[in-house]
Design goal:
By secondary structure, the chain is of the alpha/beta class. Helix 3 packs across helix 8. The two termini are about 45 Å apart. About 35% of the residues are buried. The C terminus is likely disordered.
Length: about 300
């Protein structure tokens, strides 16, 4: 397996790793500059020359994998018989510098409803290194010609057309995925919210909506859904950054994306052991604030 394929495999499996590259070579060394090794928690792919260099690099890479927010770093190796090595002697006579680049698990976001707001949000999120799921029950919202604007995306984008039960996609999402619910149909939103609360391991759950919509949803989640207060308070409504009150889809999308980026930063910093909530917390939010964000539907 090539190192490129190995990196892709780790990302697809949402596993952390480290990319190890021979950065510089002076004199004789087992491999030339540019040789690469991919280190995962339980496997390696490629080689930077074997022996002490590779063994020490693997040891250090595994230490970085276990850190919450590791930084890239350089390691220097002198290849002579006068150096005391952890994994045996390499006496090629040269010197090697190795670069270790952590490969973190990127954030994952699922946008349910790719109407006016969802589409603008997808355009913004697509510029970031995340796994982005776009889900809609309407095929036209996910048509190739409509999503062509995302062709140069940095994000890994997965498109899900679910005409009958879009909530089934929730079970397919990786643990920690942040969910944003903004479909064209309040009944569809209600089903998604209910199922999201029943799906273990999700990150934050945000719902676009007005205070009237939330009052109806909250009542149904309690009486028909059987959810307790603690579970219901996981739903964040309104979504977005407080103080940004514009009604245009692009403005709402910027507000929501900004709040998500805050969540990503706090998660990377290890500020919380539980998923970081979208702000403001539902239990403290003014239900009238941002009500324009879902008057009618979010299409």
């Amino acid at each position: 397996m090539t190192w490129v394929a190995a990196v892709g495999r780790l990302r697809a499996r949402r596993e952390t790793g480290v990319l190890v590259t021979v950065a510089t070579v002076r004199g004789h060394a087992p491999r030339k500059a540019g040789a690469k090794l991919v280190v995962g928690a339980s496997g390696t792919w490629g080689s930077i020359g074997g022996g002490n260099i590779e063994a020490v690099a693997i040891d250090r890479a595994r230490e970085l994998i276990d850190r919450p927010d590791p930084e890239p770093e350089l390691m220097d190796f002198a290849l002579n018989d006068k150096v005391t090595n952890r994994h045996g002697v390499q006496c090629c006579g040269g010197a090697v510098t190795v670069l270790l680049e952590p490969l973190p698990v990127v954030p994952a976001v699922a946008v349910f409803g790719v109407g006016h707001v969802g589409f603008e949000l997808a355009r913004i999120l697509a510029r970031h290194n995340i796994d982005l799921h776009l889900v809609d029950s309407r095929a036209e919202m996910l048509a190739d010609e409509r999503l062509d604007v995302l062709a140069d995306a940095v994000a890994e984008i997965s498109v899900h057309h679910q005409p009958l039960l879009p909530e089934e996609v929730l079970a397919e999402l990786a643990p920690g995925t942040h969910v944003l619910i903004m479909t064209h149909d309040h009944a569809e939103d209600a089903a998604l919210v209910d199922q999201a609360l029943r799906t273990p391991g999700l990150g934050s759950i945000g719902l676009i909506g007005s205070s009237a919509k939330w009052a109806r949803f909250r009542h149904r989640l309690t009486t028909e859904g059987g959810h307790d207060e603690a579970a219901i308070n996981r739903i964040k409504i309104p979504i977005g950054t407080p103080g940004i009150t514009g009604k245009e889809p692009a403005v709402i999308a910027v507000s929501v994306a900004a709040d998500l980026l805050r969540v990503f930063e706090e998660e990377r910093a290890g500020a919380a052991t539980e998923p970081v909530p979208l702000s403001p917390p539902a239990a403290e939010a003014d239900p009238g604030r941002g009500a324009h964000r879902a008057s009618g539907t979010a299409a």
